[in-house]
Amino acid sequence: MEPDQAAVAFLLAEPIERTRELIGLLDAGAVDPRSSRARVAQQVTLGRASLDRTMSLLRAWRGDNDNASQLYRMLRSLLDVKHLVKQQNTQADLVWTGHKPPGSSLRSTPPVIAEMLDAAERHVIVLSYAVWLGQARVRSMLDRVVAARQRGVQATFVIDRNYSPDSTASGHNLEQLRTEWPNDAPRPDIYSWGDDDDRIAKLHAKVIIVDRRDLLVTSANLTGHGMSGNLELGARIMGRPAEQAHDHVLDLITDGTFVKEPW
Question: What tens digit of pLDDT does each residue of 20-38 get?
């Protein structure tokens, strides 16, 4: 099989996460087309079929010393194409917080959010009306945004600046982010919205957008009850709507609707 055909066959057979893992190993020099089967198996835990496919790919690319970098570039390009195709094909699943009857196929909100944030590579955008980050399930979400920020992912929070649990003050959400975000972690960007002339008006959207490709629209706030206790329904959407949501938020930042808050 020709080298480029082997790369295409590998990408079609293996999940995106496996391709991304191999790209990382090639980039770090941990494996190359001359690596032995034992060496590859030592670097990553693979099932027999997946290891066979990986070795077939590497063997097809054996040649001069520059083949590792060529294979790296080929896989990166193919992965970008695969992401693009996947974005054009909308996929949607329902997400639920709270009691589920036996046999329910709906996934729970916290693990879906964790999955989305752990896969982030470039951007994370979070919108919420009420923010309580000290509670355990929400703290886990925040820790994942922090981890994403530490690996170079851009993080943006958009919150309602007038929200207050007792309706007598404002700024609760800003204070939560400033207090709970670790001092030694790169900071996120924080934007807010509030209508001082209409105190009933709210930034009521609860949204997470990852890499312009993965979107969660939910009734759940970033609170303990939003993650566990309330009955909340959301939809996780992958594809064109995620692009639209990402671009819409950025447009609202650009036109000044969302105001950047100092840290």
Answer: 889 999 999 999 999 999 9
Alpha-carbon gap, residue 213 to 123, rounded angstroms:
10
Rounded Cα distance, 132 and 221, in Å = 9
pLDDT per residue as tens digits for the range 194-222: 998 898 899 999 999 999 999 999 999 99
> Which residues are CB-neighbours of 29 under 8 A, at least 6 positions away?
68
Q: Determine contact, residues 232/106, Cβ cutoff 8 Å.
A: no
What are the DSSP E strand ranges found in 27-182? 91-97, 107-108, 123-128, 154-160
**Which tokens sit at 32?**
């190359």
Q: How far apart are CA 46 and CA 21, in angstroms?
A: 11
Q: What confidence tens digit (pLDDT) does each residue in 73-114 have?
A: 889 888 888 777 766 677 899 999 999 988 899 999 999 999
| Spatial separation of the C-alpha atoms in residues 212 and 200, rounded to whole Å | 31
